[in-house]
What does this fold into?
Amino acid sequence: MIAPLYRDDWLLVVNKPAGLLSVPGRGEDKQDCLSSRVQEIFPDALIVHRLDMATSGLLVFARGIEMQRQLSAMFHNREVSKRYVAIVSGKLQPDEGEINLPIGADWNERPLRKIDEATGKPSLTRYRVLSREADTTRVELEPVTGRTHQLRVHMRAAGHPILGDALYGEVTSAPRLLLHAQSLGFVHPVSKVSASFVCPAPF
It folds into this structure.
C-alpha cells in the first residue's frame, strides 16, 4: 500500500518506488502504476507530473481537477523547486556547474532522447557534487527545464552517465537506475505557505 508522505484536502506527496510506472502504460501488463495505487485510497487524486519508471522519489498528486490545473501550471511556470540525487560514472568536475544542451527525440531509437543542436528544445540542468568515490560521483541535480529523460541525457552527454541506466548505456553498473527525486518545494496554492518535502535517496 502507498502511504503519502504528506496529505491535506488539496494535495498529496508520495514517494514512488523504482520500477513502478507513474501512470498506466499500453497493454494489460502495464496497468499497475502509482496513480492507480494512490487512487485506490484517494479516489480524487490526480497526477500532476511524472517520473520515469526506473526513477524513484517524490511525486505530487492533486485532489480534484481544479487543484490539478493549479499545480500543473506551477510546474509549467517553474514555480516548483526540484532536486534529484544520482550516482554517476567517473569523477565529475568541477564541483558545481550547468549543462545547457538542447534535447530532442531520437526518432531512430524511440523512446530515447538525444542532444539535438538543430531542432532540440532548450534544456538546462544544474549540478552540485556531493561526494566522490574511486570511480563514481554522488551529485545533486536540478532540472531547470523538464524535458523527457533530461537528467539521463545530460549526464551521458557530459561523459558521466547515471549508474544503472538501461536506456543510456550503464545498465550493468548497478541493480537499478541510481536516480532519485529527493526534494520538492513550492508555495502551497491554497494556504500560500512555503512547503518543502524531502525523501532521502535509498542508495
User: Anything to note?
Assistant: The two ends are 22 Å apart (CA to CA). The mean pLDDT is 95.
